[in-house]
């Protein structure tokens, strides 16, 4: 009850729910991230900048229930799709249907007619353009019918040039060992010598930067005069870009 002066007591104020906690509870009930990460997005054409909130992606329900639930659903889907298998699954493509065969045959006829007119030199520009448009329409129908890939050799389904990332190593980079690519999706398994349990991680990776100088147990340099502070600060600033580039080369 309010005091005679009209003010509530401290115990009464402590019993009142916090507005922030109520907002977080409503967001969690609606499946919205309660700890979004703010990112700055800049349009390189106009220079306009805006702040965009993206989900935090936490896997701990105590930190963000909505993101943890979403991550749990993704892991469940991965298990259902076979990410837990110990051997590569054998996938046999289905037999093409009559409709799919009909679209492929029709495209072959139109392509043959176009090639005949072009090689004979009898086709006008409008006729070739019309046949090219017909082939593009047939490609769209072929994709919509459930066939994957492209009929034309060396062409992409979207018609655009394939994007190639440069993985050329810098001149000052050391020669690192290379491993042959294995045509398998199942990784190496590791056995715990204590319990005998077998683990098969999807990616096991250890990255270590070169030393900047000897340090003590608390992380402070043994000799501050020889410790490479400049390189340590530069690596800390560009570490995310180094990891991104490493992942690009790894792929």
TrEMBL record:
It comes from the Bacteria. Residues 169-178 have a biased composition (Basic and acidic residues). Coiled coil: none annotated. This is Replication initiator protein. It holds the Pfam family RepSA. Residues 1-20, 148-193 are annotated as: Disordered. Residues 148-161 have a biased composition (Low complexity).
């Amino acid at each position: 009850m309010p005091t005679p002066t009209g003010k509530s007591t401290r115990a009464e104020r402590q019993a009142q729910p916090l507005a922030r906690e109520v907002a977080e509870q409503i967001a969690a009930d609606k499946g919205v991230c309660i700890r979004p990460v703010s990112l700055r997005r800049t349009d390189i054409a106009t220079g306009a900048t805006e702040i965009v909130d993206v989900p935090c992606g936490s896997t701990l329900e105590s930190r963000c229930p909505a993101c943890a639930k979403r991550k749990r659903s993704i892991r469940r889907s991965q298990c259902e799709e076979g990410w837990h298998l110990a051997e590569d699954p054998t996938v046999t493509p289905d037999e093409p249907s009559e409709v799919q065969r009909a679209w492929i045959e029709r495209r072959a006829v139109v392509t043959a007619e176009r090639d005949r007119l072009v090689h004979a030199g009898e086709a006008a520009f409008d006729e070739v353009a019309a046949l090219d448009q017909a082939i593009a329409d047939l490609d769209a129908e072929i994709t919509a019918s459930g066939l994957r890939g492209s009929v034309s050799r060396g062409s992409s389904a979207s018609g655009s040039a394939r994007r190639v990332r440069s993985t050329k190593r810098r001149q000052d980079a050391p020669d690192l060992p290379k491993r042959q690519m294995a045509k398998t999706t199942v990784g190496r398994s590791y056995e715990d010598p204590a319990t005998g349990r077998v683990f098969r991680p999807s990616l096991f990776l250890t990255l270590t930067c070169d030393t900047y100088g000897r340090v003590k147990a608390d992380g402070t340099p043994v000799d501050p005069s020889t410790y490479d502070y400049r390189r340590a600060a530069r690596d800390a600033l560009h570490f995310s870009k180094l990891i991104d580039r490493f992942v690009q080369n790894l792929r």
